């Protein structure tokens, strides 16, 4: 759930992040009448997977991004079809529509809507492949990242071919993850404080 982080500037070039706008500026201690930068809401980077059709989705393997995630934690990745149905691969094999754990994930749109039909065709074909049975799962060599990487390889869309899982992480996931980590940092700083000051 979006905690509603706000940002404004009053007396300096420093940004003030908060959940409610204070009457008095935390920097200059003056009553706030005007702003150098009007208050605005920081975009919430997490989505419910079922509302993100035709996307790649990422979440922590354990817990949630806001409350539990640490940069060294493992991530889990899945694919959402054009109807919001989720496909993921783990030690239980290929799982379809176990959406309860995907309510606050990072969603990455990688193709235009004109590709929806083909996207779904590739996913449906992969569900028939015995390769994605639980017996074949290995946390290091045959995991959720292999499933998504093979899906993207078969999709054969522009710039979505990756040499390995690390290459896919660096090019596809890290840019979105960095954005999420900035938000998580703000959230954690505001958990026990009324405001957070940043340059």
Automatic annotation (TrEMBL):
Residues 3-30 form the MKRN2 opposite strand protein-like N-terminal domain. Pfam families: DUF4796_C, DUF4796_N. Coiled coil: none annotated. Residues 39-190 form the MKRN2 opposite strand protein-like C-terminal domain. PANTHER family: MKRN2 OPPOSITE STRAND PROTEIN. This is MKRN2 opposite strand protein. The lineage of its organism: Eukaryota, Metazoa, Ecdysozoa, Arthropoda, Hexapoda.
């Amino acid at each position: 759930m979006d905690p509603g982080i706000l940002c404004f500037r009053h007396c300096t070039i420093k940004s003030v992040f908060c959940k409610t706008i204070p009457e008095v500026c935390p920097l200059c201690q003056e009553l706030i009448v005007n702003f150098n930068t009007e208050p605005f809401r920081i975009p919430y980077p997490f989505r419910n997977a079922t509302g993100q059709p035709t996307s790649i989705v990422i979440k922590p393997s354990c817990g949630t991004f806001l409350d539990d995630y640490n940069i060294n934690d493992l991530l889990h990745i899945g694919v959402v079809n054009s109807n919001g149905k989720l496909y993921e691969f783990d030690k239980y094999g290929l799982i379809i529509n176990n959406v309860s754990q995907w309510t606050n994930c990072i969603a990455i749109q990688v193709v235009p809507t004109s590709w929806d039909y083909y996207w779904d065709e590739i996913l449906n074909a992969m569900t028939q492949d015995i390769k994605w049975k639980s017996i074949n799962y290995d946390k290091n060599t045959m995991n959720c990242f292999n499933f998504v990487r093979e899906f993207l390889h078969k999709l054969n869309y522009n710039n979505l071919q990756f040499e390995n899982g690390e290459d896919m992480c660096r090019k596809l996931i890290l840019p979105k993850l960095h954005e999420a980590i900035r938000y998580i940092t703000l959230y954690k700083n505001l958990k026990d404080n009324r405001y957070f000051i940043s340059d």
